[in-house]
Amino acid sequence: MAAITDMVDLEIQDGVAVVRIDNPPVNALSEGVRNGLFEAVQKADADDNAKAILIICSGRTYIAGADIKEFGKPHRGVVLFNVQDVIEGASKPVVSTIHGTCLGGGLETAICCHYRVAVASARFGFPEVKLGILPGAGGTQRLPRIVGVEKALEMMVNGNPVGANFALENGLIDEIVDDLFEGGMAFAKKIVEEGRPLVRVRDANEKLEEAKKDPELFNRFRKKVARKTRGFDAPESIIQCVEDTLIKSFDDGIQGERDRFGVLIKGIKSEAQRYYFFAERQANKIPDVPKDTETIPIKKVGMIGAGTMGGGISMNFLSKGTPVTIVESTQEALDRGLGVVRKNYLRGVKSGRLTEADVDKLMGLLTPSLSLEDLADCDMVIEAVFENIDLKKEVFTKLDAIVKEGAILATNSSALDVNAIAAVTKRPEWVVGTHFFSPANIMRLLEVVRAEKTSKTVLATVMALAKRLGKIPVVSGVCPGFIGNRILFKRGVQAQKLIYEGAMPWDVDDVIYDFGFPMGPFAMSDLAGLDIGWDVKTSKGETLRDRLCEMDRRGQKTGAGYYNYDPETRAKTPEPKVEELILEFSEKMGKTRREISNEEILQRCIYPMINEGAKILEEGISQRPSDIDVVWVNGYGWPVYRGGPMFYADTVGLDKVLGKLKEFQEQDNDDFWQPSPLIEKLVAEGKGFKDMA
Ligand code: HSC
Ligand code: NAD
Question: Ligand 2 centroid vs 306 CA: distance in angstroms?
Fold first, then answer.
């Protein structure tokens, strides 16, 4: 085998030039891969001993895309477009044989080949949109020519991969093979024997002609994705590139694609999304828990509490085939909890994702119980009873006496002291917080709360488990509210103050929504329920919330809260009575209401979050600034194109944030605004959070 570069080899085998890429972990199109492919394909094309060229990758995957680390740096080596030209322009058939994930620039390379085969487990996609860019190496011009305009739009705008069957049915691959190398070789030889033509996707216009018959296609598609793509730039640019396929030549379309790619890649939104891509992966790493730390197998799980969280958390395990024993305090609560789980799964039957038999099988993995003793042989027990420290301590004391040694004891508390909970057991090193978010079967964030004595084995096991469950784990130390809720609390304080000083809940919500969140703090409270922690027996109408709950305005579930909700559409409208109540409270507090600008609303809601994030870093509660961003993007709807609160702070300028904190502190004469010493230090050094990594 001849090495072309340290990442690409070329060997003639049985009349086929085998070009092999080996750039672990994901065979990204780094400089060495581009240089190697360029030279290898040219050599192979010129070699009379080769009748066809086969491109194959070593390791776990075909090319998973451009090397994202190279973006934003000066370009080096052969440009990808030139690699594609030599592949597409080769004088003999070039075949890609594909496994793993064929993504982005990888798929763009594959569709420059004349033919493609893949193993059945291969996945294909254009995830560029998730990085705030578009497929910039011909993808927007070639994909519609293969799968048709509508499917191409779907694939590129939602960014999710498709499987090999879809790829085969839609012409993205020519055959599914059993063996990556043997299958690829056999296919390449067959092409030569049959004298099949060199298929160049750029010349295929049939699917485009079909799309021209449907003039409403693009408007329809824009409407369909409007809600999901709000605030992002890349989706619209992708749509425009695809529109070009119907009105421009291939080469002009390519030029349009490159121009739009160039604009997006330089934008702050793409920078934020690329930052976030690495942030999410970084969050997996715990500096003092090495990769090879021992983990324990989690084959059977115990769940305590079958309420909102207990049911949802259980579903994660059941869906992965792990049996769960779920314990409640009463038969009624148990029945209710199991009913909700079944109902959730039945939704999957309605949408066609599951069959009734699947649901029965999933429910068969869930064993109901009224006795903690039934959890004795579980490998991990997760407690999700009411948020009450005494109750949690009582449950953990019992668990300690019942559950086998070497099992993980986890609490789903959203704010309580995990050290205090661990301390009631004789095995605090086996205790950890696993803070799932609601709805727990859907939300991907998992705050892994590392208590003082939590062992490295427990941490490594929970991090690996999170990945298996499809969650995004972020480690948090112990403090009230951990990373996410502690920061949320600060935003809530200001949101409330703003409405007594002059804004209305909808003014605050509009600003937060326009910033990019799916909803503002008041709409969020209505969704969660205003009566969490409220008690009708003790309520004395002292707060706005008391008054709203007393009026049975407890949020969306009662059809009214801060807003009124349409029973059919759930559309929200402001309520004059709520406005009156707010004015009444302002007066009682002696506030002179004033016009508050949108800018002030935004700064007063967001800057305390940044300040609290900095305090969380100082205290070592969060391992790094980017972990805080992962929590907020994944758990609370922070718009990913703004990176997260800590990334955003750097884009605003930490000096400006600090200036405003001081200004508000002076105005309010309130410790709430006390700037974090970390921000003061970074500003003094002319640095940002990004420099802490
Ligand atoms: C693109 O292709 C743009 C094109 O249109 C070309 C444009 C050309 C323009 C030319 C202009 C002149 N790069 O996720 P994992 C690392 S954009 C660098 O834990 P998994 C990752 O950071 C790209 N590094 O593994 C991690 O590193 P760590 C389109 C990459 O098995 C390690 O690999 N493609 C990387 O769970 C393992 O990653 C994508 O967006 C990359 N492309 O998932 C695909 N991809 O160990 C992005 C991964 O140090 N990648 N790394 O932490 C993925 O979605 C997932 O990584 C996979 C594997 C599904 C591939
Ligand atoms: P919930 O009221 O819906 O459910 C709690 C369940 O625990 C009830 O069904 C109750 O009967 C049961 N229970 C109480 N004591 C018990 C005992 N001794 N043994 C067995 N079962 C018992 O509450 P939830 O919303 O599911 O919250 C559970 C935990 O998860 C809390 O600590 C909460 O703070 C946390 N959490 C909640 C959310 C959320 O949005 N609901 C999000 C994250 C974390």
Answer: 7
Domain count, the chain: 4
Question: Containing domain of residue 552, as a range?
Answer: 503-588
Of the pLDDT bands very low, low, confident and very high (cuts 50, 70, 90), residue 670 is confident
**Is 387 a pocket residue for ligand 2 (Cβ < 6 Å)?**
yes
Q: Which residues contact 643 (CB under 8 A, 6 or more apart)?
A: 271, 272, 273, 275, 276, 629, 633, 651
State both tokens at 406.
């070497």
- Are the beta carbons of 414 and 387 closer than 8 angstroms? yes
Q: Which residues 6+ apart lie within 8 Å of 483 measured at CB? A: 447, 474, 476, 616, 621, 622, 627, 628, 631
Measured in Å, residue 427 CA sits from the centre of ligand 2 at: 23
Backbone angles phi, psi at 515, to 5 degrees: -65, -25
Contact 482, 447 (CB under 8 A): yes
* 559, 588, 617 - which closes a domain: 588
Residues 615 and 584 grouped into a single domain: no
CATH of the domain at 629: 1.10.1040.10
Is 272 among the domain residues? no
- Is residue 1 pLDDT above 90, yes or no? no
Do 68 and 6 have their domain in common? yes
Please report, as a single letter, which amino acid is at residue 460.
A
Are both 38 and 145 inside the same structural domain? yes
User: Residues with Cβ < 8 Å from 10, sequence gap 6 or more?
Assistant: 1, 2, 4, 17, 18, 19, 20, 40, 43, 44
Could you tell me if residue 249 is inside a domain? yes
Domain boundary among 540, 560, 588: 588
Which ligand 2 atom sits nearest the alpha carbon of residue 413? 32
Looking at the CA of 396, which ligand is closest? 2
Lookup result for tokens 């955003």? 648
The tokens describing 284, both together, are: 């997996």
Radius of gyration over alpha carbons of the chain, in Å? 28
Q: Using CA atoms, how far apart are residues 130 and 630, in angstroms rounded to an integer?
A: 15
C-alpha 47/C-alpha 441 separation (Å) is 56
439-481 pLDDT, tens digit per residue, is 999 999 999 999 999 999 999 999 999 999 999 999 999 999 9
Residue for token pair 């790094």: 624
Q: pLDDT value at position 532?
A: 85
Q: Do 15 and 47 touch, CB atoms closer than 8 A?
A: no
My answer on whether 549 and 651 are in the same domain is no
Residue 404 gets which letter from DSSP? P
| CA 678 – CA 693 distance, rounded (Å) | 14
Is residue 292 situated within a structural domain? no
Tell me if 271 is assigned to some domain.
no
Active-site annotation holder among 39, 88, 128, 243: 128
Query: 349 near 379, Cβ under 8 Å?
Result: no
- For residues 581 and 616, membership in a common domain is answered with no
| Nearest residue to 578 via CA among 605, 549, 540 | 549
Are 460 and 510 in the same domain?
A: no
Determine phi and psi for 445, rounding to 5 degrees: -75, 140
How many angstroms separate the alpha carbon of residue 335 from the centre of ligand 2?
A: 15
Whose CA is closest to 460, among 215, 296, 576, 227? 296
Supply the CATH number for residue 17's domain: 3.90.226.10
Residues 561 and 478 in one domain: no
Does residue 236 carry a catalytic annotation? Answer: no
Looking up residue 423, the CATH number of its domain turns out to be 3.40.50.720
Asked if 232 contacts 273 with a C-beta cutoff of 8 angstroms, the reply is no
Mean pLDDT throughout 506-529? 97
Q: Report, in this order, helix, strand and coil percent for the chain, each rounded to 5.
A: 50, 15, 35
Residues 129 and 40 grouped into a single domain? yes
What are the angstrom distances between the C-alpha of 188 and each of 122, 123, 154, 424, 478? 19, 21, 31, 66, 59
Read off the amino acid at residue 465: L
* DSSP label of 230: T
Ligand 1, atom 12, lies closest to the CA of 79
pLDDT of 693 higher than 90: no
Report pLDDT digits (tens) over 262-283.
Answer: 999 999 999 999 999 999 999 9
